[in-house]
Design a protein that fits this description.
Blueprint (H helix, E strand, L loop, with lengths): L2 H13 L5 E14 L2 E14 L3 E5 L6 H8 L13 E4 L2 E2 L5 H11 E4 L11 H6 L7 H30 L9 H36 L1 H12 L15 H13 L5 E5 L7 H16 L3 E6 L2 H4 L4 E6 L2 E6 L1
Parallel strand pairs: 3-8, 3-9, 6-7, 7-8
Antiparallel strand pairs: 1-2, 1-4, 4-5, 9-10
Helix pairs in contact: 5-6, 6-7
The protein binds adenosine-5'-triphosphate and magnesium ion.
C-alpha cells in the first residue's frame, strides 16, 4: 500500500467506529526449556488485532515472532500461572478451549502459513490444500466403527439363527446351546465384516471427496487463483519455493478462515515472487481477510496497516 492511500484509508477507518478486537495476546509470557535452563522468549507481550486489519509483527531473528504467532494460532500455549497472560479469540481464552473447540479454531477460525511451508510430502498439491477441510469429526470417528460392529453383529447373529435352524431343524431355538454358539459365531463374523466394510467405504468416500467433493472444488478454485491450476497433482518436492509457499497459503485459506496468520510468507523467496504473493494476500485483505503477518523485512511490513515490533520479549506499537 503506498503512503498516501495508507494514510487516507487509516484516516477513513479512524473516522468510523473501530472494528471489534477479534484476536488478542494479553500480557503473554512464554518460556522454553533447554534441558534445565529456562529460555524466556516472550515477557508481557500484548497485541490487539481488529477485524479486517492487516498487522505486521516485525522483529530481529530470535525475537520470538514465530513463537507469538504459534500462540495466536493455538498451536502452543503461553506459560501457566501468571495473572494476565492469555490469547483471546473473540474475547474467549484459547487456552480454555476443549479439544473440539481448539481443533475448530485451528482449522476453521484461523489459517496458518508456517515459516517453512510444512507441506506433507506424500500428498499432492490439491490434497495438501484441502487438509484443513478434511479434519474428521471426532464423534463420528469414535462412534461409526461401534455402530458398524453393532449392525454387522446383529445381522450376523440373525443369519446365524436362520442358518442354525436349517442345520439343526429339531433344535429348540430359545434353549439349545448349539444355536447360541452358531448365532454368536455369526454375530462376531458379522461385526468384523461390518467394520471392514465401513473402512472400505470410508476410503472410497475419502477418495470421492478428494476428487470431486465441495472441499476439492473450493481448494481447486483457490489454487487456480494462485496460479497453481496446472500443478494440482504435483508433489511438494516437484514445486519451486514460490509454488510451495502459494500452496501453503492456499491451504491456510481453504476453510475460508476470517484470519490468516502468516509466518514470513515471503521469507525464502526472491523479491519478485515475494511481491506476487503479497499482492495475492492484498487482494484477499481488500475482500475482508484479517491478516497477522510476521516478517523481519520492513519493505514487506509496508503492506500492513499497522506494524508491531517485538523487542526484548515485548510487543511495541510503532504506528504505520
Ligand atoms: N522449542 C524450543 N525450545 C527452546 N528454545 C526455543 C524453541 N523454539 C524457539 N526457541 C528459542 O526462542 C527464541 C525465539 O524463537 P522464534 O522462532 O520465535 O524467533 P523468530 O523471531 O521467529 O526468529 P526468526 O526470524 O529467525 O524466524 C529463539 O532464541 C529460539 O532459539
Ligand atoms: Mg520465525
Amino acid at each position: 500500500m503506498n503512503e498516501e492511500t495508507k494514510k487516507t484509508s487509516s484516516k477513513a477507518s479512524s473516522d468510523r467506529d473501530p472494528s471489534p478486537v477479534v484476536l488478542e495476546a494479553a500480557g503473554v509470557r512464554k518460556t522454553y526449556r533447554l534441558g534445565r535452563v529456562p529460555v524466556r522468549v516472550l515477557e508481557d507481550a500484548s497485541i490487539e488485532v481488529r477485524r479486517g486489519e492487516w498487522v505486521a509483527i516485525l522483529g530481529a531473528s530470535g525475537s520470538g515472532k514465530s513463537t507469538l504467532l504459534h500462540l495466536l494460532g493455538g498451536l502452543d500455549r503461553p506459560d501457566r500461572g501468571t495473572a494476565r497472560n492469555a490469547i483471546r479469540y473473540e474475547g474467549r481464552d484459547v487456552s480454555r478451549f476443549d479439544n473440539a473447540e481448539l481443533n475448530h479454531y485451528r482449522n476453521r477460525s484461523v489459517g496458518f502459513v508456517f515459516q517453512f511451508y510444512h507441506l506433507l510430502p506424500e500428498l499432492s498439491v490439491l490434497e495438501n490444500a484441502m487438509l484443513p477441510c478434511l479434519v474428521p469429526n471426532r464423534w463420528i470417528v469414535a462412534t461409526l466403527p461401534l455402530l458398524a460392529a453393532l449392525v454387522g453383529g446383529g445381522v450376523g447373529a440373525t443369519i446365524g439363527y436362520v442358518a442354525g435352524q436349517g442345520v439343526l431343524p429339531d433344535a429348540d431355538v430359545a434353549t439349545d446351546p448349539k444355536m447360541a454358539v452358531i448365532a454368536a459365531v455369526f454375530g462376531v463374523l458379522g461385526a468384523a465384516i461390518g467394520v471392514v466394510l465401513l473402512q472400505i467405504g470410508q476410503v472410497i468416500g475419502e477418495r470421492i471427496r478428494l476428487q470431486s467433493g465441495p472441499e476439492a472444488a473450493a481448494s481447486r478454485a483457490t489454487l487456480e487463483e494462485f496460479g497453481l491450476g496446472h500443478r494440482l497433482r504435483h508433489k511438494p518436492s516437484q514445486l519451486s519455493g514460490g509454488e510451495r509457499q502459494r500452496t501453503a497459503i492456499a491451504r491456510a485459506l481453504a476453510s475460508e478462515p476470517g484470519i490468516l496468520l502468516a509466518d514470513e510468507p515471503t521469507g525464502n523467496l526472491d523479491a519478485a515472487t515475494g511481491r506476487e504473493i503479497l499482492d495475492l494476500l492484498k487482494k484477499r485483505h481488500l475482500a475482508g481477510l484479517t491478516i497477522v503477518m510476521v516478517t523481519h523485512d520492513p519493505n514487506v511490513a509496508e503492506y500492513a496497516d499497522r506494524v508491531v515490533r517485538l523487542e526484548d520479549g515485548r510487543a511495541v506499537e510503532t504506528g504505520d
